[in-house]
Amino acid sequence: MSMADEECSDAAGSGTSLQRDLSIGLAVALVVVMACQWLLVTLVMRQVVRDYVVSRLEHDAENLLANLDLTLMPGLALNPERIDPIYTQPWSGHYYQIHVREETLRSRSLWDAELTVDMPGQDKSLMTESRPWARSLWSITRAYYKQGHAVLVVVAEEMSHVERGVWVLQLGHGAISLLAIAVLLMLQRRALRRAVAPLNQAGVALREIEQGATPSLPVQGLFVEILPFVIAINRLLALLHARLERSRQAAGNMAHAIKTPLTVLMRLIEGEELRDHVELRARIVRQIELIRALTSRELKKVRLSGVRSPVGRLEMIGELRVLVDVMRRAHGGRNLRIETRMPDSLSAIIDREDLLELVGNLLDNACKWAVGRVRLSVTDADGWTLRVEDDGPGCAPEQFERILRRGGRAEDAEGVAGQGIGLSVVQEIVLDYGGRIALGRSEALGGFCVEVVLPLKAVA
């Protein structure tokens, strides 16, 4: 995993989730809305059922009053042919009770029980479990005046089956509401994923831009809300690339401008005027070499900074073989043997100049310190792994940090040419590609060993 991927993982682990926040907000809103709807529907449904039952009980009370014969008083009688037979069945769930002065007429369905007489107009729901005929009664009490007598009629109906129906309807409505909330959350999750999919694709494209595989973000198939953001990023990339090119060009011009005065100084040193001043000439030469080294270092820094120029997939093995041949000729006077262990073909997205400078610095450093053998190994396991080893004296572990700094050299490097910036440049290139570098001792050759791992998309 590259450093950028690790940073993204850390940010994702410590940051907030848009999907979680939206889901929580939507869930809370839906629960509140569904609960209010459920309560409203329940209240309205109960009121409708109550009004219907009261209306029917009032109709039964008026029917009883119409069929009440008061001419037989003392004594009350109803025309049995006009009374619903359900009032004659014991504990049928439909009951009436009529009061005229001191006399009371009860329905046969009441058996020997009595209904509670309330104030006229007060409709009540009586919940009683002790009597089987009154598990859940809704009753009304109405006062009438007929044939010169005050008549009080109480009509009741057992409503357990209605209560059960209302409860089942409430449960069904609640279950449907919960199902609707779950479906809406799933649809919202799917819509959010579809909405952020272009951003995920843009993230992949940015990583490809970082590796140099593409110069800009794709704009095809984007939502109109995201398109201006992507276009702005592409403009910024183009601007940064243009500025980088101008910086590189300016640095190159500066390097060429400095070369001429340095060449003039070198000729003056070789002239007759300073021939007798050996120590002075040596001091001036060291200063000139230092200027050249500093200039080269700053040029490399400019080239490594900023946005890398778009590059394609590079066939690395051919380039490395050419570089090895160059090193053999450069150090041909020492009779060095440079061994290579590489696959026949290996390509990756990497800048050619970065590759040559990275491997060139490592090989040149190994050749300077080697006694007779240098080995270059390249594999594509765990990314692109490169190892350069030599059979020289090696380096103590306590000096590793020092030699990776700009200008840092080993303590016993006085007799070896160089300015001590090779490994620092290598480290800059490695970090620029999100890789890692490890220093140590070669187990095979006994000298110094440098291992570089780059997370490149290599194809062997």
From TrEMBL:
The chain crosses the membrane at residues 24-45, 166-187. Residues 193-245 form the HAMP domain. This is histidine kinase. It comes from the Bacteria. GO terms for molecular function: transferase activity. It comes from Candidatus Magnetaquiglobus chichijimensis. Keywords: Kinase, Membrane, Phosphoprotein, Transferase, Transmembrane, Transmembrane helix, Two-component regulatory system. Residues 253-458 form the Histidine kinase domain. SUPFAM superfamilies: ATPase domain of HSP90 chaperone/DNA topoisomerase II/histidine kinase (SSF55874), Homodimeric domain of signal transducing histidine kinase (SSF47384). It is an enzyme of class 2 (transferase). The gene is sasA_4. Its main location: membrane. It catalyses: ATP + protein L-histidine = ADP + protein N-phospho-L-histidine. Its EC number is 2.7.13.3. It is found in: Membrane.
